[in-house]
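ok so dumb question maybe but i'm new to this and my supervisor (M.) told me to 'just get the structure for Acetyl-CoA C-acetyltransferase' and walked off. so i did the thing. is this what she meant?? sequence i used:
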Amino acid sequence: MAEAYLIDALRTPTGRRKGGLAEVHAIDLGAHVLEALVARNAVPAEAYDDVIFGCVDTIGSQAGDIARTSWLAAGLPLNVPGTTVDRQCGSSQQALHFAAQAVMSGTQDVVAVGGVQTMTRIPISSAMLAGQPLGFPDPFSGSLGWQARFGDAPVNQFYAAQRIADHWGISRGAMEAYALESHRRALTAIEAGHFAREIVPLAGVEHDETPRHTTLAKMAELEPVDPAYPSITAAVASQTADAAAAMLVVSAAAVERYGLTPRARIHHLSVLGDDPIWHLRAPIPATEAALQKAGMTLADIDRVEINEAFASVVMAWLAETGYPAERTNVNGGAIALGHPLGATGARLMTGLLHELERSGGRFGLQTMCEGGGQANVTIIERLD
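this is what came out, is it supposed to look like this??
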């Protein structure tokens, strides 16, 4: 089978809610990273076969196939099409999978892939909440088939985060300690300049705005998001954010044609479904299945990026897999760096690629929990 190569990966800084990127239109966020991607690489803009972006809640400024509109807003050629993917939090990781699959099938040679989300303008679940009362959205209400199979069990991330914490015996204090470490790692990475190569500044914002100089005492003062979920507070959850990220995926033929230098090879990609009531647990079985398909073990993996939707998600994954915490989310995760939904998968892969290069590691694994009880897994091999 043909190979798919990662040539470049970049992102905007992560803007905190109502922060420095709040006034940037979603299309312009996407356009910014696409313009930079094309400018940084020796592929003529008209030679791109497709643009595949992830985005969640595609309403308002995020509607209208934002992959296509972002490309056009960047002033790039009219002949290049675009399509937008929604696999919830894993949307741009799935976009990468679709791009790699297109290249590996031999049907495309050059694909721009990434994601965008402006959560200041369009808060999480805006599409779900349309026409519904405020509170936890329940898009399943009234579906006879859904209720016949799953009953009236809550289908929301807070319930799942608490359920995971209870099942794996993870206390609120332990989650707060994990969250504090995420902030510490992110702040250390910023100070050391680890993100400098991957970030394309925008609107005067040069660094991620979301990492906080916080304390366990401050975290302990926070009220739970709901009394029904006593261990789940804002401190142990990912931050809403505004951001975009983009990557260049090409074939071996494109590498030769344009004189490109591959930075990584897509070694494995897969996706797995799990119980939607557990919602956030899927990275555990998905990782096991992916490694089995790839003929690998976690001992072969040098770095892992797993989305910190909630501290309990990553802590349960670590407990179940036994993978070293010191090689997981080494520069902080979404608790510190934010979770701009449709952009997060591309942001994680961008960080993983640059971290493998910085550390000299060979294999990196990315996974993340996704709405509906799903998880993508991508394994890349850094190339010298």
